[in-house]
């Protein structure tokens, strides 16, 4: 799709929307105000969008994280008010989310024991060391057990039963599921512009095209060991608590819905970027964050005059965090002349 003979390939689409999701219709009302709809069996997603806004997981808040003890294998309690964790269907296979000072940590639950949650490794191990951790947090903005159907109680929450091909949602006040626009994000990447360092993609422009409805599935199995910039520690068994600082060059990056690497003279102008379960734009990120497998190498890339909202990660991430990003062994890997201007950001990086 690259331009030729000095010309640019222009994709102009005022009013056009490119979606990475599937439209959900045919909602039926069940008990306790919960509605359900059928989706293809095996559909995998962590993100439901209703009338342009992200729904939250079915979840229940833990009253006080200090009521729990934290070990290398999981978390336990003695206070009987938490015994519902042993008696609620679906807790094994659900996850726990810890919102701290500058980290937002997610850990899958492997099994439930006698007043104990046994957590999946190595997501739990990696969430227990470093800074602002599960057990040694700098600030506490809440802990939730989430993503189990039995926890679906409040408006704006959902649960996807992938095996049964059924999605459940409890509407917010005023929402009409007969007319609501509902989408499950199923793709992680909508657009990938990527060549090779010796043959980069080039001279491609998008004008007034909107993009929406993605998801990010990795936390379902690996958790999310959040660090600064939204980068995260991957599942790596060789790290030990004594050398946390040495992990920094090995952190991974959340993928963007729109990815640009090994490319030059790329323009995205105008358009809306919304309802994305990972990042928005990933420009010259590390290789792990690109569907093409090739990272970095972005030059003369422009993102201008866009409107960003309801994006779960960073709206725009330019550059990488690994060693090749800050000390590229090949000059062609260097990111350069990236322009981000005139964009509007509203209600992003939060759920």
From TrEMBL:
It comes from the Eukaryota. This is Uncharacterized protein. It comes from Achaetomium macrosporum.
């Amino acid at each position: 799709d690259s331009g030729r003979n000095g010309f640019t390939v222009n994709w102009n689409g005022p009013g056009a929307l490119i979606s990475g999701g599937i439209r959900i219709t045919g909602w039926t009302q069940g008990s306790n105000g919960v509605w359900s709809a059928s989706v293809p069996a095996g559909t995998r997603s962590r993100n439901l969008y209703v009338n342009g806004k992200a729904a939250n997981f079915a979840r229940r808040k833990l009253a006080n994280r200090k009521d729990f003890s934290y070990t290398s294998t999981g978390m336990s309690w003695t206070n009987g008010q938490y015994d519902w964790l042993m008696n609620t269907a679906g807790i094994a296979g659900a996850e726990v989310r810890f919102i701290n000072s500058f980290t937002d940590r997610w850990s899958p639950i492997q099994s439930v024991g006698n007043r104990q949650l046994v957590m999946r490794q190595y997501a739990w191990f990696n969430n227990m060391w470093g800074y602002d951790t599960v057990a040694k947090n700098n600030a506490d903005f809440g802990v939730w057990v989430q993503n189990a159907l039995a926890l679906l109680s409040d408006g704006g929450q959902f649960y996807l039963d992938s095996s049964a091909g059924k999605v459940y949602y409890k509407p917010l006040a005023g929402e009409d599921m007969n007319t609501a626009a509902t989408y499950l994000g199923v793709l992680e990447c909508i657009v990938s512009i990527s060549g090779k360092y010796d043959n980069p993609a080039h001279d491609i422009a998008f004008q007034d095209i909107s993009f929406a409805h993605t998801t990010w599935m990795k936390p379902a199995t690996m958790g999310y060991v959040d660090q600064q910039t939204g980068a995260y520690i991957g599942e790596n068994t060789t790290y030990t608590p004594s050398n946390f600082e040495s992990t920094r060059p090995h952190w991974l990056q959340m993928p963007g819905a729109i990815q640009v690497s090994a490319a030059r003279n790329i323009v995205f102008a105008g358009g809306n970027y919304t309802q994305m379960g990972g990042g928005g734009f990933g420009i010259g990120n590390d290789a792990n964050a690109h569907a093409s497998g090739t990272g970095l190498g972005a030059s003369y890339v422009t993102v201008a005059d866009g409107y960003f909202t309801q994006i779960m990660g960073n709206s725009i991430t330019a550059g990488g965090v690994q060693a090749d990003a800050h000390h590229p062994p090949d000059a062609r890997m260097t990111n350069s002349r990236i322009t981000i201007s005139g964009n509007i950001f509203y209600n992003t990086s939060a759920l």
